[in-house]
Amino acid sequence: MKAVTSRNGKPLQIGSFLKCADNSGAKILEIISIRGYKGIRKSRPKAGIGDLVTCRVASGNEKVRHQVYKVVIIRQKKEYRRPGGLRVEFEDNAGVIVNDRFEPTGTLIKGPMAKEAVERFKIVGKIASIVA
Questions:
Q1: What does each of the 132 residues of the chain score in pLDDT, given as a tens digit?
Q2: Which of 25, 61, 64, 98 is the most buried (most CB within 10 A)?
C-alpha cells in the first residue's frame, strides 16, 4: 500500500461504528480489528482515513447482517491537515466494503470520499461520485 501524504490523526478505535457508504446492503459497521497496525505495548489500535480495517455489519440487509468484511475508511469526523496547510473534516465516519483484492463490493459510493483514500486504493476511487 502507498503511504498517505497528509498528517491525519487516528480517531477510530476497536468498537467504533462507521456508516457504510456503498450500496452493498450494509448500513452500520463496527470495527473489530485494524489490519497492519504496529503500535506500542498496551495501547489501543487506532485507524484513520485510508486504513484497512475488519468490520462486523451491525445493521443492514439480512444477507449481510452479522457478517465480517474488510473495509476501507473513506471519511472521518476528526479534522486532519494536508501538506498545503488545509484542514479537512467530514460530517461522519464512513467506510466502503472491499474484497480480498481491495475491489469494492458495491457499485457506487454515497457522499464524498477523501483524496488520501483514493491515493491508497485507486480502484475504490473509480466508483466515487465526489473526491474531496
A1: 677 776 677 889 999 999 999 999 999 999 999 998 888 888 889 999 999 999 999 999 999 999 999 999 999 999 988 888 889 999 999 999 999 999 999 899 999 999 999 999 999 988 888 998
A2: 98
Q: Which three cell numbers stand for residue 36?
A: 497492519
Q: Which three cell numbers stand for residue 121?
A: 486504493
In a domain, 4, yes or no: no
Domain count, the chain: 1
Cβ neighbour number for residue 119 with a 10 Å cutoff: 16
Domain-embedded: residue 94: yes
Q: Which residues of 55-90 are buried (b: 16+ CB within 10 A; e: fewer)?
A: bbbeebeeebeeeebbbbbbbbeeebeeeeeeebeb
Q: In terms of residue numbers, what domain contains 93?
A: 12-131
Q: Is 53 among the domain residues?
A: yes
The pTM is what? 0.89
Q: Are the C-beta atoms of residues 70 and 105 closer than 8 Å to each other?
A: no
CATH of the domain at 48: 2.40.150.20
